What we know:
- Helices cover 24% and strands 40% of the residues.
- It has a single domain (3-32, 72-165), classed as 2-Layer Sandwich (Alpha-D-Glucose-1,6-Bisphosphate, Chain A, domain 4).
- It has helices at 14-21, 27-30, 116-143; strands spanning 3-10, 34-39, 50-57, 60-72, 76-83, 87-96, 99-108, 161-165.
- Strands 2-3-4-5-6-7-1-8 form an 8-stranded antiparallel sheet.
- The chain is of the alpha+beta class and 168 residues long.
- The chain contains 3 helices and 8 strands.
Amino acid sequence: MPLAQSEILIAASPEKVWALISDLERGPEWSVVTLRCEITSEGPPGVGCTYRSVSKFAASKITTEHEIMEWDPPHRMVTKVVKGAESILTQTCEAQAGGTLLTMSNEFATPAGLLGFVSDKLAKQVTDILAQELARIKEVVEKSPGSAQASSAKGGRGESVSSTEGCK
């Protein structure tokens, strides 16, 4: 499955970053494709929690259902699409000098018969979307009360860094 990945340094603690990304219903606040997100299971988010997402991608509205597979606050969350286009989204928060390195990766299936160069183009599109979402998360978290606006987070690692990998 192709892998799209991007990361950004945010001038805030992992706990502050986690507070935003783990609040699933706030996804539309920072996602460039998510229109609506609702928890569909009982209890707080954690392993086994399910949610439904309505997203806009390539001029289409797509409804997907997700399950949290890993939950390690404030470090790592892995969600899998259980109904809809096959995908696994991993989000990690790593404490760094000057804040938190937030990495998002999306490993996704491509339609059968899709040529390699088309698959690579799709991975590039998804990587670009992740970079845009990371920039939005950075903006929301750093503008929230109590965030450390570390000057070391400006420029350099404060810009998102993206990469794609081919099929594994």
